[in-house]
User: What shape does this take?
Amino acid sequence: MKNCTEISSALQDAVVLFQLIVYIPVLISGVLLNTIAFWVFCCKLKRWTETRVYMINLMVADCSLLISLPFLIYFTKNKHPIDNLCFAIEMIYFTNSPMSIFIIMLIAIDRYIAIKFPLKAKTLRSPLKSACICGFLWIMQIASSFFNPSFGKGKEQFCFQKHSTEPTYLTLFYICFRYVIPLGVIVFCSIQVIRCLKKKMASSLHETKLIRKAVYIVSVNLCVFVLCFSPVYIALLLRLAAEIAGACHLLSKVRVSIQVLSCLANSNCCLDAFCYYFAAKECQEFSSLLPTCISMRSKMNQSQESQQPTDQVIT
Assistant: This one.
């Protein structure tokens, strides 16, 4: 079973060609859009907000991921051995790719708190708290990358390629921690925000337009996340299942699918640039919606307090 995951040279060349077709536009547009985004969020915006802190961290993660992509293509094509350069590039890649997911999750949580709990938002949210959370995540992510099963130190011969058929059960933990849990949090927060915003419609025509834009932004961000990251993590789960079952004939196909679907996941670092644009607008639109949320929440609290004595008399 040692060579059961070996891929033919023709198929490997096709994978490299596909990576070039995807990554060259991603690199060009990613560098351009991230440069513009850095200028907007670091220079043009004057006030520090939670969204601004998260977006700058997301840009750092995306730019670091972009740096690793040319090396990934070269290592895949030339079957680069495991050395210090390989270890450094893998550290950058396996640190920043999940970090993007975690920051997107933090943005969803921050948005949920701002809309669902507008009265408590000022105490629960602040740029300093956001920066501290991001700093903690960076430290944890860098530390956990040393134990990433994808490194395969001692088991694998080539960089960014897993040839061993021995199941790596730690992969299941990484799939749950880096994808399943963030996905659940993002879906929950997004659905709750959309439901909360739709309840606030019809107060005025201007506010209704703002709410519809906000609902659209949240929906698009959720769809982009699911479409980009779900396929590759499902493929990683299938590879683990094939390794456990000893399905040697499936491993080579699954391995190719992981390389192809990783292109889709990594293209998210380019698609995030559109998230930057929407986030800049979202800061203004959500801030204009907060007074409405606060007034409606206070009215609900007042109505509950006025009903409380009546309920006690009835009982």
Remarks:
- Residues 268-314 form the longest helix (47 residues).
- The two ends are 74 Å apart (CA to CA).
- Residues 294-315 have pLDDT under 50 and may be disordered.
- Residues 57 and 134 are 7 Å apart (CA to CA).
